[in-house]
Amino acid sequence: MSERRANRRFVTSDGIAPVDAHQRPRDYLTPDEMRRLLIAARSGRHGPRDHAMLLLMYRHGLRVSELIALRRSDLDPKAGHLWVHRLKRGLATSHPLAGDELRAIRRLLVGRQDSLSWLFLSERGQPMTRQAINYLMTVIAARAGLDAVHPHMLRHSCGHALAHAGRDLRLIQDYLGHRDPRHTARYTRTAATRFEGHW
């Protein structure tokens, strides 16, 4: 790939190419923005489902395909664990579920009368699709007063939240299922905790 074509991928909205590829617009939500998004998700027509989906995507850094592939059998409510199947040759791992996540999942499943294996279903009783998730995110973000939120931002939000909490790069790498630590370094490089104590 030529240098010109490579740089075109990182041109900003004003048409100016940044100095390096790490200078890009913020592509994650802050904790307060995530709180607003989750509140908005809960208030919709399918509130329990939408809230649980967004909460799990955020807390576990799920890609859309990983979310819609979740099965009931991936849950271990007694142990409070979720088995996360990573795509893109990522490392599959068992994640602990927090209390609010377990409650959200219980609210989701309490009204289910079917025996289908998928954790999240559409209104027609079919597995959720990428297109449906994209549409829901647009609607929920508008309800929350947020601009241009797309599903992958929740994965980035997870990585940034862990990095800003001072978590170790290797731990974040394993949690998100990254094979290459360079994919994780984007979160730790921009974390405010790196610069604490300088003044």
Automatic annotation (TrEMBL):
Superkingdom as given in the UniProt entry: Bacteria
KW Cell membrane (keyword) present: no
Keywords: DNA integration, DNA recombination, Fimbrium biogenesis, Transcription, Transcription regulation
Domain Tyr recombinase: from-to ranges: 24-199
Family: Belongs to the 'phage' integrase family.
Protein name: Tyrosine-type recombinase/integrase
Source species: Paracoccus nototheniae
